[in-house]
From TrEMBL, chain A:
Subcellular location: Cytoplasm; Lysosome
InterPro entries the UniProt entry points to: LAMTOR5 (IPR024135)
GO terms of molecular function: guanyl-nucleotide exchange factor activity
Main location: cytoplasm
Protein name as annotated: Late endosomal/lysosomal adaptor and MAPK and MTOR activator 5
Organism annotation: Amphimedon queenslandica (Sponge)
Record's keyword terms, sorted: Cytoplasm, Lysosome
GO biological process, one term: negative regulation of apoptotic process
One GO term describing the cellular component: Ragulator complex
UniProtKB/TrEMBL annotation, chain B:
Gene Ontology CC annotations of this record: Ragulator complex
Protein name per the record: Ragulator complex protein LAMTOR3
Organism classification: Eukaryota, Metazoa, Porifera, Demospongiae, Heteroscleromorpha
Organism: Amphimedon queenslandica (Sponge)
Family membership: Belongs to the LAMTOR3 family.
One Gene Ontology biological process: positive regulation of TOR signaling
A Pfam family of this chain: MAPKK1_Int
Amino acid sequence: MEGHLEHQVTEISQTPGVVGVICTDPQGLSLAARGTLKPESSGLVSGLATQAASLNLGNGEDDKPTIVVEFDTGNILIRGQQNSTLGIHKV
Amino acid sequence: MDEGLQAVLKKHLHLVDGLRCISVSDRDGVQIVEVHTDHFPTGVIKPIFMGTFAIASEQASKLGVGKNTSIISYYSGYQVIQFNYLPFVLTFIADSKSNTGMLYSLEEDLRDPIGHLQAAVSVP
């Protein structure tokens, strides 16, 4: 059932420059995780997406933001969808 | 010790939206330390409710997949996350729409203080 998701997450994690991928459900529980982004990070990734979405500037509920968390060593991109949140750690 | 743990729990109570109560009880459900927000219905944390976890966790440990470490229960109004620190039980009670993943990761920060409590009562 989750084979397709696992496949997609693996594919993203094999993209050059990507060192970690995580996908979470709306409750912040990890659905799939690869590399540097551990399942324990799922709550924070999902929480960031939810908090950022609450900044919504009147563009409707479907307009979800993409968040970039910048570090010296790389960026984590987070994008919330209706039923999941995807986090990608890039160097 | 008790006051120290209470202060730590109080600090963590405001870290996750919707978290209403953090409680440490013994395996029979007797409260040891508890912090909760204003207007929290304290009837929710009756000893019978807390004590049931120890039994449920013990039964879950017999499923042949290792020792049970936590149980998450969803209700219409609340979610309850309980961690097995036997002889102690750590309980988070939050709104049903709270971020379960964030609540779950809070436990990592509380591992040390509750570990100290476990060490204090363990028989050498």
